[in-house]
Amino acid sequence: MSAALSPVAAGDNGEPLIRWDWIGHNSDIITQALNDHLVLSIVPVVLGLVISLPIGLLCARYRWLYAPVVGLTSVLYAIPAIALFVVLVAFTGLTRTTVMIPLTLYTLSVLVPAVVDGMDSVPEHVRQAATAMGFGTLRRLVQVELPIAVPVVMAGLRVATVSNISLVSVGALIGVGGLGQLFTDGFNRDFTTPIIVGIALIIALAIAADVVLLVVQRLLTPWARAGSSRRAARRAVRAEPAMPEEAAL
Amino acid sequence: MNAILDAIRWFFHGEQWHGTDGIPHRLSEHLWYSGLAFAITVAIALPLGLLLGHVRRGRAASFFGFSVIASANGARALPTLGLLILAVLVTSSSLVPTLIPLIVLAIPPVLVNAYTGVQQVEPGLRDAAEGMGMTGTQVLWRVEAPVALPLVLLGLRTAAIQIVSTATIAAYVGLGGLGRFIVDGLKRQEYSSTAGGAILVILLAFLIQFVFALLRRVAVSPGLRRTS
């Protein structure tokens, strides 16, 4: 990959922090890295959501499951990403899978508690009303409980998505890092432009993903807009620190 | 699976246990960098978080609160590897610039959890303390801080683990520590060293979790443990 990059002035004396012409000359490499990055970070989020929904629902129903499951996921969460990547190399090689498995596990450890908390956020009287109206268990779950749980689950989903987007770049150490490749590349050639481009794009990607998820949440919960949006906003700010766990790297 | 067995065998080579590239030396380096970064982080973020949570009245306070939480969410998006490399390339020296990203990334969890912990103390409890004649400082130290302790500890644990794992990555830009085994192993294609280093880092992360679980058990008031 580095062979394809344009030559660089040696040394950092007088070298500007960003060389804009480099960006123009290497736009296809940057686009490729961005695409890779998107796949590497979003696929684990989707997988994590698909896996954590049934697990979370089971834990919400059978409480005794919750403590051991959360214990397990929080232990996994504490393992630094680079260590997991490296251990997995023995099984899956230097492939995308090696990067995506740990990210899926991190997503699980954020989303399983989020799903359980979301189910807990359903008021008991709503559940009883649904039952009284003749809703069966499955229909009540899909049409009543899950929609009410959406804001809490979405809060978890946003945390997981944003931390995945920044974590993918660590994969560059084993050669699968999306935009992280720009970091190692810049380091090898003592050249700051790709590094700054990489950081800027990762932050932009994280913000964009966050905005998309917010829009999705708004579309999924039309009733939240109807009420006093001010109170909802205040509640959202207060609900935010309900997941104080930060991503371990 | 063989590769993992190789890594386990790697631990029992005599050469792994002495010299600059031995496990004891690398471990002590790792603990030294991490400990330094952690101490600085705590010194900055913990008093600030407790104080911001304590002073909750007024527009300025709520603005600060909002920016604390926003900064924490924003910090999640920052790619550590990029920051580390940038810091090293721009300053072209080693220890201090590598510590800065470590600290910057560890401050938000401590700050947010201390802030939320104090802020979420039940108003009735605070009123009762004031009604007993406690001054503001006494309320903070005797009521709010102990009640906030579980969250504060959670923030400290998150920061500690974050620092230990970022310090591992910092080996890539030339810092010592356990990350050296991983980075050098990858470079020389010696998988046993890489995996051995990874296992050590994982054990260290588990140890930190265990220490904080212990701290929680010892330091948190029994009355609080029952409810949370």
From TrEMBL, chain A:
Segments crossing the lipid bilayer: 38-58, 65-91, 97-116, 164-183, 195-216
Record-annotated ABC transmembrane type-1 domain positions: 34-220
InterPro entries associated with the record: ABC_transp_perm/SBD (IPR051204), MetI-like (IPR000515), MetI-like_sf (IPR035906)
Membrane topology term: Multi-pass membrane protein
Coiled-coil ranges per UniProt: none
Key word Acyltransferase present: no
Keywords, sorted A to Z: Membrane, Transmembrane, Transmembrane helix, Transport
The UniProt record lists the keyword Membrane: yes
Cellular location(s): Cell membrane; Membrane
Gene Ontology biological process terms in this record: glycine betaine transport; transmembrane transport
CDD domains: TM_PBP2
Main location: membrane
GO cellular component, one term: plasma membrane
Similarity comment: family membership: Belongs to the binding-protein-dependent transport system permease family.
PANTHER family with a match to the protein in the record: GLYCINE BETAINE/L-PROLINE TRANSPORT SYSTEM PERMEASE PROTEIN PROW, OSMOPROTECTANT IMPORT PERMEASE PROTEIN OSMW
Record protein name field: ABC transporter permease
Organism this protein belongs to: Actinomadura harenae
TrEMBL record, chain B:
GO BP term (any one): transmembrane transport
Subcellular location: Cell membrane; Membrane
Keywords: Membrane, Transmembrane, Transmembrane helix, Transport
InterPro entries (UniProt xref): ABC_transp_perm/SBD, MetI-like, MetI-like_sf
Gene Ontology CC terms, in alphabetical order: plasma membrane
Segments forming domain ABC transmembrane type-1: 27-212
Transmembrane segments: 31-52, 139-157, 163-183, 195-215
Pfam families: BPD_transp_1
Membrane topology value: Multi-pass membrane protein
Keyword Secreted listed: no
Family of the protein in this entry: Belongs to the binding-protein-dependent transport system permease family.
PANTHER family: GLYCINE BETAINE/L-PROLINE TRANSPORT SYSTEM PERMEASE PROTEIN PROW, POSSIBLE OSMOPROTECTANT (GLYCINE BETAINE_CARNITINE_CHOLINE_L-PROLINE) TRANSPORT INTEGRAL MEMBRANE PROTEIN ABC TRANSPORTER PROZ
Protein name from the UniProt record: ABC transporter permease
UniProt source species: Actinomadura harenae
